[in-house]
């Protein structure tokens, strides 16, 4: 199987989540349903768990579910670890995904600022944040922020939950929307954030098996 090729899209998506959430040190623990929809209408849906500073997302792509040989996939992010962990329950295997790109670091800093009730862009150069007021999103009170990266011409609107100190909706000018619904506050099971017993590490550098 060409595992690396088939996981590229999921890896990119989940590392974006790592950037948004990996340093949610002051956010409250919660679970939620999550969906990510692209401008072309493609969607990834799943379940989100946050137990600061660790997070997990269980997900699948409804459009490609029948053709997806991996089945459901989970990503575990622990800021204290060098790598993120991708679990593939259907095959009882896991992959280690290096973390730490510049975009992830920026995202971590922004969430840290938000979790402290401050301007998401504080301490950054070339990026501005403008508070657009407050709105109710998914039944929860949120502060609405516009984040503009001048050099890349990239604009993002983030709705930050006033209680969770976490962006429960994010929409960018490329048409990608991330949405958290069915939010349930409270402690999460610690077993969600470790590799389950019986899983073995997948070596993506190994040659593909003949079909």
How would you describe the overall organization of this protein?
By secondary structure, the protein is an alpha+beta fold. It has one domain: Lipoprotein localisation LolA/LolB/LppX (outer membrane lipoprotein receptor (LolB), chain A), CATH 2.50.20.10. It is built from two helices and twelve strands. It has helices at 3-21, 102-115; strands at 30-37, 43-51, 54-60, 73-77, 83-88, 93-98, 127-137, 140-149, 154-161, 166-172, 177-185, 200-201. β2 (43-51) and β3 form a beta hairpin. α1 (3-21) packs parallel to α2. The longest helix has 19 residues, at 3-21.
- CATH domain class: Mainly Beta
Largest sheet: 12 strands, mixed
Radius of gyration, rounded? 17 Å
- Mean of residue pLDDT? 75
The strand count comes to 12
Count of individual helical segments: 2
The structural domain count equals 1
Helix content: 10-25%
Low-confidence region ranges: 1-16, 18-25, 63-67, 101-109
Shape: globular
Strand fraction band? 35-45%
At CATH level 3, the topology is outer membrane lipoprotein receptor (LolB), chain A
Oligomeric state:
single chain
Secondary-structure arrangement, i.e. CATH architecture: Clam
The neighbouring-strand order within the major sheet is 7-8-9-10-11-1-2-3-4-5-6-12
Query: CATH superfamily membership, which one?
Result: Lipoprotein localisation LolA/LolB/LppX
Distance between the termini: 8 Å
The helix/strand series, from N terminus to C terminus, equals HEEEEEEHEEEEEE
Structural class: alpha+beta
